[in-house]
Amino acid sequence: MTLTSEPKATTPAVPLTTEGRKLPAPQRRQRPNLWGPAFAAPHAIGLGLFTLTPIVIALVMSFHDWPMIGSPTFTGFDNFERLFADDTFKAALGNTLLFVVLYIPLNLIVSMGMAAWLSPRIKGRQFFRVLFFLPTVTPIVANAVVWRLIYEPGGTLDATSQTLFGVELPNFLADPNWAMAAIVVMSVWQGFGYNMLVFSAALDSVPENQIEAAQLDGASPWTIFWRIQLPLISPSVFFATIMTLITSFQVFIQPYILTKGGPGTSTLTLVQFIYNQGFTFQQLGLAAAAGWVLFIMILIITAVQFIGQKKWVHYD
């Protein structure tokens, strides 16, 4: 009797490459990850509705005679021609540029000086950080009202000067020669705390061994700051300069509360000019044109800063 064996079960052959290696198993098709777009959607919708859409609408309005009540009329570039022929707009433009030129250097110098002073060796460092940053988070309207009481005749500053030195100070907010300087001082006090924290964090990140090596070589503190620390924190300086530049062009509340743009037009700024044209004189087309002039100025100056950063900002 002959015995027959059952056929052995065979496994499917695995395809091999020319080198005898197994090919990878076919991968499952991955579903697109929708969590990222879902979380970004609220911000993107808000950006589109409350930022991009108003920009486009303002551009359209700038080419129209657009009253508060009534139908708009297309006027082309007439609003822009009216702006640059208006002495009030020229004064507002000059005052804004003057504020920027005075405010930015003072803000950066005070911020950097306080950040350098608040080294880890200073006792109560965290307390001083909070103290100097406090005006930044305090409502700017409240700060402006307090500073108005300080500046006015018989106020804190004038009373202190008369008590200590017997000198009566001028009315800073009513004097065209002093009004802008008074606004700049108040604005520096209000805003230097933010940049101070940025610079302080940047200085803390500077490698200590580089500073110690410079000290062993006999370098003075000023040389260490100018040759080592400042180049290493130049990205933070660039960031602070750009942000301060943008906010300084948009100055409004300080002169509006302190001087109402006066005396005369000596402290009238571009944003206050836009506010007056839009909400006081109800010339929305002219206000939109002035807003676009301000936007283009900020855009150009910021672009120049980004181009020029290659010469002094070190990211290594």
What do you see in this structure?
Helices cover 65% and strands 1% of the residues. The chain has 316 residues and is mainly α. Strand 1 and strand 2 (73-74) form a beta hairpin. Helix 3 (87-117) packs antiparallel against helix 10. The N and C termini lie far apart (88 Å). The relative contact order is 0.12.
What is the number of helices? Answer: 13
Low-confidence stretches: none
- The run of helices and strands is HEEHHHHHHHHHHHH
Q: Numbering strands along the chain, what is their spatial order in the largest sheet?
A: 1-2
Structural class: mainly alpha
Assembly type: single chain
Strand content: under 5%
Number-wise, the strands total 2
Give the helix proportion (percent range).
55-70%
> Sheet with the most strands?
2 strands, antiparallel
Distance between the termini: 88 Å
> What would you report as the Rg, rounded to the nearest angstrom?
31 Å
- Shape summary: globular
* Average pLDDT metric: 88
